[in-house]
Amino acid sequence: MAILLVPGFMADETLWDDMVPALARFGPVVHADLRHDTSVEAMARRVLATAPPTFLLVGFSMGGYVARAIARQAPDRVRALVLMSTSTRGDTAALQKRKGAIGNAAPSIAFSGLSRTAVATSLHPKQRDNDALIERIRAMGMRLGGEVFRRQSLLDRPGDLERSGEIRCPTLVVAAENDQLRSLAEAQEMAAAIPGATLAVIEDTGHMIPIEAPQRLLDVIVPWLAAQAEG
C-alpha cells in the first residue's frame, strides 16, 4: 500500500519531511504535483494519472480540496483519507477580491516569495517570531516560483459540502486548535457531512500542522491509518 501526500498552497514535498520516515511504514510515499493546473478537478486528474492503483490519501489545506476531488473521481482507489487544516467552504468575497487583484497584476512583477507577515499569520502565536520556521515555509514558495504562485492564487476553490456524501472511504478530519486560516467550525461541519468521518483536534498549533507539530500529528494519524490499512 502506498501513501499519497497532497500539499497545500505554495508548499512542496518538503512540507512532509518530518513525517515521511513514520509514514513510510505504510509503503512507498508518493508526492502529488499541484504546480501545473488551474482547477481543483484538473489537479486531481493529474495526480491520479500517475498515482499507484490504490493508496492511502492525505491532503493538507488546499490539498484537502484536491484530495476530496481524488476520492470522488476514483473512489475504488482510495483506501482511506486524511484531511487536515482544510474546509469544504467556497471562497469568501474577500478572497475573491484578492484573487481579482492578483489577476490584474502585471505578470512581469518579480515574485519575492510569501511575505513574513503572511507566513506568520498561518502559525501559532508563539511561533510567529520563529525565524527558522518562517524561512522554511518561505523557502517552499521560492522554490515553486512566481508562475505557480499566480496559478495557485487564482485557483477557484468551489464549496463542496453538498458532495460530501460521495466520499465512501474511511475519513479522518484533523483540525489545529489555533488555526487562524481555517476554523474549528469548518472542520466540524466537514466531519459531520462525510459519512462515518472522525474528527481530531491537535492542540497548541496553528495552520501549518505538518511543520509546527509533526510528532503530535503523527501520534493521531499513524494509529488511525494503521487501523484502516489492516481493515
UniProtKB/TrEMBL annotation:
The keyword Hydrolase applies. Keywords: Hydrolase. This is Alpha/beta fold hydrolase. It comes from Massilia orientalis. The lineage of its organism: Bacteria, Pseudomonadati, Pseudomonadota, Betaproteobacteria, Burkholderiales.
